[in-house]
């Protein structure tokens, strides 16, 4: 297809298919017990991973993590800075180094998940990041803190791909859009948990921010224990059966092991789908810039520039993430009926329009803007898991989904450090009562950063492909059994050209 014709189809293919939205309760009832258990264990693993990450941002100054653990850092940037006598910009490196190394974990645990199953790589991954979160609470120097966060980044990087595949690949096709939106909101739920426990724990016992990290490390171990008692996903078992039934031979015609066949097929698979993989990385770069640019430094903006109290900062972040929970679930649900790209584009435009309401108010009314801004940010994110799943080759799903997500994270990893460093170039005059506090105009930098990100992501989504209903996994497994998994790569077609997509999908925008 010529470039001109393709660009025209970017607009014509945005038209909704005219499908009547199904009752979400009815969609959830389609899940059997095993599918429900798979979804819940993935949701809680992703939530607690985010908890760990955001525990830093709430305490950056006092100290000087996939999502509960990540937010344990982001919510404590100020507190951590005080412990290690470091500036906000220094402590945000604990966030940056975590994001930079996540792609390593995505590759390692993604390949493991596609080769050895969704179960044990998932369990090992959770145990790894839980242990590192606990060790972070015992750090006594800034160097130890950075090393723990770096290793935690590797562990955190592996969790997303395995969570998405565990939660969605066995789920009924019609329910996947709704489940995708709910799953992604584990990230916002992790932020809420980190904020709530930070308020209840950090200043109410002698160990300060460290106790929050110990709690954030203990809870994921319960999820890992739960996953041990659940079986392997049926989709992976079907693909594994296809691999065993297929003829796995090298170029000389000699039979090779299934593990070697998987490894040998990665290179031709990347060669075949490199354009789509690059697109997914560019897309996830924009999404990660949007999330981290709007969230990571926001508590610091509230406490430093707006001089909000710790309690008011926590309440504001909780309100904003309530909006995120609602937005992600709703937009993920409606994307099954109005299309993935159109749904994302609508909330991107709305979010860009709400930037002033998110950053300009100087009193409690800013909570309204925070609520609706995060509704839009996480509304767009609610479509991401299912959009990635539909575009990824079936038998390399964990690898492609996790790697695209985390390479995007790698590129956007310096978001909070960039904002913090640039913000310090715009000092504000201090009040007579707060002369000892150095205040900076973080809001100005965040507004410009978010505006650029919204424009970039809007262009990427508008120009990109879409596969609203990927073919059934059972059909994929049957095809693999019939054709065999050979050394020339995956049999399942990732959307490489619009013409291929139109031939293979029931409902699809190329």
Automatic annotation (TrEMBL):
Residues 491-510 are annotated as: Disordered. It is a multi-pass membrane protein. It is found in: Membrane. Pfam families: Sugar_tr (PF00083). The keyword Membrane applies. The chain crosses the membrane at residues 37-61, 91-112, 186-205, 211-230, 273-291, 311-335, 342-360, 445-464. Residues 38-468 form the Major facilitator superfamily (MFS) profile domain. Keywords: Membrane, Transmembrane, Transmembrane helix. Its main location: membrane. Gene3D superfamilies: MFS general substrate transporter like domains. Residues 500-510 have a biased composition (Basic and acidic residues). This is Major facilitator superfamily (MFS) profile domain-containing protein.
């Amino acid at each position: 297809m010529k470039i001109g014709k393709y660009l025209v189809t970017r607009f014509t293919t945005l038209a909704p298919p005219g499908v009547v939205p199904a009752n979400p309760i009815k969609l959830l009832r389609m899940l059997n017990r095993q599918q429900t258990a798979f979804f819940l264990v993935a949701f809680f693993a992703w939530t607690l991973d985010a908890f760990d990450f955001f525990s830093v941002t709430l305490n950056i100054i006092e100290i000087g993590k996939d999502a509960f653990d990540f937010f344990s850092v982001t919510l404590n940037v100020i507190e951590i800075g005080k412990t290690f006598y470091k500036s906000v910009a220094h402590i945000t490196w604990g966030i940056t180094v975590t994001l930079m190394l996540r792609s390593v974990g995505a590759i390692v645990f993604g390949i493991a998940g596609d080769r050895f199953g969704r179960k044990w790589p998932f369990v090992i991954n959770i145990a790894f990041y839980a242990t590192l979160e606990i060790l972070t609470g015992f750090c006594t120097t800034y160097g130890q803190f950075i090393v723990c966060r770096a290793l935690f980044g590797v562990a955190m990087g592996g969790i997303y791909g395995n969570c998405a595949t565990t939660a969605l690949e066995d789920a009924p096709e019609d329910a996947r859009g709704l489940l995708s939106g709910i799953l992604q909101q584990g990230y916002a739920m992790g932020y809420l948990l980190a904020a709530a426990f930070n308020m209840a724990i950090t200043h109410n016992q002698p160990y300060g921010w460290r106790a929050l990290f110990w709690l954030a490390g203990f809870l994921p171990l319960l999820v890992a224990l739960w996953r041990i008692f659940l079986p392997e996903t049926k989709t992976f078992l079907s693909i594994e059966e296809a691999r065993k039934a297929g003829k796995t031979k090298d170029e000389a015609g000699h039979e090779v092991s299934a593990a070697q066949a998987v490894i040998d097929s990665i290179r031709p698979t990347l060669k075949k789908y490199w354009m789509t993989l690059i697109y997914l990385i560019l897309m996830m770069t924009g999404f990660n810039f949007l999330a981290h640019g709007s969230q990571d430094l926001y508590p610091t903006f509230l406490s430093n520039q707006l001089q909000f109290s710790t309690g008011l900062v926590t309440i504001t972040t909780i309100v904003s993430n309530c909006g995120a929970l609602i937005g992600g679930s709703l937009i993920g649900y409606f994307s099954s009926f109005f299309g993935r790209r159109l749904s994302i584009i609508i909330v991107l435009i709305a979010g860009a329009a709400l930037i002033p309401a998110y950053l300009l108010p100087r009193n409690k009314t800013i909570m309204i803007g925070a609520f609706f801004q995060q509704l839009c940010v996480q509304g767009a994110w609610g479509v991401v898991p299912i959009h990635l799943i539909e575009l990824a080759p079936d038998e390399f799903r964990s690898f492609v989904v996790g790697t695209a997500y985390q390479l995007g994270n790698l590129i956007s990893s310096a978001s909070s450090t960039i904002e913090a460093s640039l913000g310090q170039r715009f000092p504000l005059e201090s009040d007579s009562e707060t002369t000892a506090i150095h205040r900076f105009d973080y809001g100005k930098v965040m507004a410009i950063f978010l505006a650029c990100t919204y424009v970039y992501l809007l262009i990427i989504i508008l120009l990109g492909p879409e596969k609203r209903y990927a073919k059934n996994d059972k059909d994929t497994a049957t095809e693999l059994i019939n054709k065999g998994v050979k050394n020339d790569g995956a049999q399942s077609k990732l959307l490489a050209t619009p013409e291929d997509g139109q031939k293979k999908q029931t409902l699809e925008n190329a």
